[in-house]
Specification:
The protein has 19 helices and five strands. The mean pLDDT is 79. The radius of gyration is 24 Å and the shape is globular. The chain is mainly α. The protein has a three-stranded antiparallel β-sheet, with helices on both faces. The termini are close together. It has one domain (2-420): Preprotein translocase SecY subunit. α5 packs across α12 (271-280). The protein is 70% helix and 5% strand.
Length: 428
């Protein structure tokens, strides 16, 4: 593995992509520590720690922002507005025919959809920025700009514009990593946010109770034990045998060989986990507009934690697993390509019957993979509800699935680049 990483840095193109990705993530993490203009940094931290319960919805949003929310930094909105906008656009493609047609137009259509997604991101970020300003100026936190010497309304505008600009920069960072770096930018930013909270959570877990050290060791052992299971599911495939008929092309005999069509057990990857998290924490983002309305905050906390959150997490992960798989894998198109290339599945007629066979196979293998992902996501949340251990929250099932999934996806891209240059890859 070490030799594979060394080989990655020997290739000039791959080295540039890796260093570019690392540089963008470092810049993002630096921005997470730059407070908004006029915000009393120490007062903000103390107010957040005394006013926010570890099980509240706001604490979970803070985890996915890498602690930027608790510091009220320029990047406090995090990547969630961008993710929410992507969910809206992808679901609208199934409802709005014009968007569905755009998605089929190739690169030009995808650029148009990306542009719409950016507009949605800016609108959602503006709403979130105004909501966070109301929240932290409420009696719960008591943050004030009175000591700055400037009119308060002017500082309010500066704070909202700064948060909005931060969200736009985060969106730009994510797209830059995807286009010029290695891996998916959105996923890597979430990965960096979760990883940044591990040292603090480990320290709080050890010092938080008399049995903190023992519990922390048990959590780490459980995480190490569950990672191979996640890798097994992520790499699992259902291979459908495909036979190609013999045909004469010019003076050569083509075809006649037997191969297979690989279908991943978890075709959607970590997207269902990320989408489900974004949907469940959206009420918490809405609740910041109404910090003094009890029932709204109670609903946001119920959806973000507790038994309702566990049930909705399971259902949403399964739903998005099927939804996203149907978007990235088209059985009809696959069957048509097989027919054009002279391929067929033994015992299955070409055309509609082949498409139906592939669809049924895809449906059968997606369900157990989605249920296992949901189980891994929910069980640590239940444990956290009884132990209130910060390390359990940081190393929760959702966090583990995202971290392992993103790491595997990134390593796969690096390995494919190495094999293109006749290197053996990272894993021998």
């Amino acid at each position: 593995m070490l030799e594979g990483i060394a080989n990655a840095f020997r290739l000039p193109d791959l080295r540039k992509k890796l260093l570019f990705t690392i540089a963008i993530i470092v810049l993002y993490r630096l921005g997470a520590y730059v407070p908004l203009p006029g915000i009393p940094f120490r007062q903000m931290l103390e107010a957040y720690q005394t006013s926010t319960d570890g099980t509240s919805a706001l604490a979970v949003l803070n985890l996915f922002s890498g602690g930027a929310l608790s510091r009220m930094s320029v990047f406090c909105l995090g990547i969630m507005p961008y993710i929410t906008a992507q969910i809206i656009m992808q679901m609208m493609q199934s409802v709005v025919p014009s968007l569905a047609n755009l998605a089929k137009e190739g690169e030009a259509g995808r650029r148009k959809i990306t542009q719409y997604t950016r507009y949605f991101t800016v609108a959602l970020a503006l709403l979130n920025a105004i909501g966070y300003l109301f929240l932290f100026k409420s009696s719960t936190y008591g943050i004030s700009f009175a000591g700055t010497g400037y009119p308060e309304f002017l500082m309010d505008i500066v704070a909202v514009v700064t948060m909005l600009t931060g969200a736009i920069i985060i969106m730009w960072f994510g797209e830059l990593i995807t286009q010029r770096g290695i891996g998916n930018g959105m996923s890597l930013i979430i990965f960096a946010n979760i990883m940044s909270g591990i040292p603090t959570s480990l320290l709080q877990s050890v010092l938080g109770s008399d049995n903190g050290m023992l519990l922390s060791i048990l959590v780490i052992i459980a995480v190490v034990a569950i990672i191979p299971i996640i890798v097994y599911i992520e790499r699992g495939q259902r291979r459908i045998q495909v036979q190609y008929a013999k045909r004469v092309v010019g003076r050569r005999m083509m075809g006649g060989q037997s191969t297979y069509l690989p279908i991943k057990v978890n075709t959607a990857g970590v997207v269902p986990i990320i989408f489900a998290s974004a949907i469940l924490y959206f009420p918490a983002q809405i609740a910041v507009f109404f910090p003094n309305v009890g029932w709204i905050n109670a609903f946001a906390n119920a959806v973000s934690n507790g038994w309702l959150n566990w049930i909705l997490t399971l259902l949403l992960i399964v739903f998005f697993a099927y939804f996203y798989t149907s978007m990235v894998f088209n059985p009809d198109e696959t069957a048509d390509n097989l027919r054009k290339q002279g391929g067929f599945i033994p015992g299955v007629r070409p055309g509609a019957a082949t498409a139906s066979y592939i669809k049924n196979t895809l449906d059968h293998i997606t369900l157990p993979g989605a249920l296992l992902m949901a189980f891994i996501a929910v069980v640590p949340a239940i444990i956290f509800a009884f132990t209130n251990n910060q390390l359990v929250q940081t190393f929760g099932g959702t966090s583990i699935l995202i971290m392992v999934g993103v790491a595997l996806d990134t390593m796969s891209q690096i390995e494919s680049q190495l094999k293109m240059h006749d290197y053996g890859g990272i894993f021998k």
